[in-house]
Amino acid sequence: MNDEPFDPLSITNKDELKRLLAELAQRMNNVFHLEEMIDHLSRRVLGQDDTVRSVARFVRQGLAVERRDKPVATLLFVGPPATGKTEMAKAMAEFLFGDEKRMLRFNCADFKDPHSASRLVGPPPGYVGADKGGQLTRPMMSNKRQLILFDELEKAHADVLTSLLSIMGEGHLDEQGSGNRVDFTEAIIVMTSNESFEAIANVDSEIGEEAKRDNAVREILKRSPKFTPEFVSRIDGILVFRPLDQDSKLQVIAIQISATANAYGLNLCCLAPSIIVDLFAQSEATSDTRDMRNKIIALLADVFIEARQERGLTNIRVDVDESGKPVVSPFEES
User: Where is 302: in which H helix or E strand?
Assistant: First the structure.
């Protein structure tokens, strides 16, 4: 009989675990170089170099504050669809917490009415589910160090913005059912919006000086029926995402194809240019690259599955046959 105490961590490499935890602690305590975060974000968010640098600077400056009475940073990403706004939030979570999924994400289209908006802070005492707390407040009570993403903020009910106003201004929010005051001073708030992006794009291209450009963008949003002047004033940084140029779009497609191959257990080493061009043409026809992953799966999933599960391949190349259909073969270095 083994008398040694049970150790749940015996299944992992403890030295590697300690190293990763140390890296995480360093990042959350701002012990990282600005260029390190810029490099990481730039690998995932293409064609937005100025915005990447600004995001990294805001996060680093916020983390450096030792006594905070508001979130680490409250950032609003504005711009047209499919320019990398949500991808930036994922890249931030990956850099700060080691995993892009380590964030609370709320699609504001699901919070259009007062009833749905109340789900963030939970039902009042006496109502069904009051003991379970809010979808925003309860996770924050168990882990204060979070990146919180509010996607398409302009679609949210005004009550959601009121809750955010409290978080941005006071650094806390009260949960309705429990009455607990929830701390947000170690959180990073990211909001995305397409609101007034055409007017903002004009200002962005016409005004070169950063401070004047920021003021002009804020004035546009203050005049918007979606946001109050007080709300806009409390945002730390409003970052403008510009439409992607052709080269950036092609790079995004290549990255997503490689990521899809990885998801099926494959390492894509070589890819036929015509596949990238065909997918690019499809995205241009619809003016939307957000469903690119679905297009890639429709085109390549079956040949990826066959290559991995039936042929046992790992390192692959993808070409096209005479009819234009994708063909997978083993990659051999020349």
Answer: helix 292-305
